[in-house]
Amino acid sequence: MARHQNPEQQATVRRVIHEYKHGELERSRGGKVRNRRQAVAIALSEAGTSNRQSPQENRRRRWQTKQKERTGRTAQAEKEGQGRARRTLRETKASVARRGTRRRTGGASGRSRKELYQEAAKRNVPGRSRMNKAELAHALRR
Predict the structure, then answer these.
(1) Which of 111, 138, 112 is nearest to 125 (CA)?
(2) Domain positions in the chain
(3) Alpha-carbon span 137 to 116, nearest angstrom
């Protein structure tokens, strides 16, 4: 493993390797990690001790990992039933705010693409399945 790891970094490496051994470690694009060397590389990256990354990148990755561990977004925490339910108040407010803005935007009086598509199906609009939200709204205005 890498040199100069503090106890927190060692704990992170142990957690990631534990997730790998139990088949819980996932790649960023989905799917399980099956290669032990890849799991070690992920562990060192999350711990911020990789010799393949710059010191700035290591600090940034370590900070992201600490955030993930604090909020219970690790595979181990989710398996133990502690994941995602323990959101911070700030995260909850932010997600509610995002949801609210997503619903209000769209130009078609706040309707979703699914709702617009259903309306287009009722009116039998040709080519509706290939239209995006803006095109559906425009076709329905005619």
Answers:
(1) 138
(2) 7-79, 89-141
(3) 7
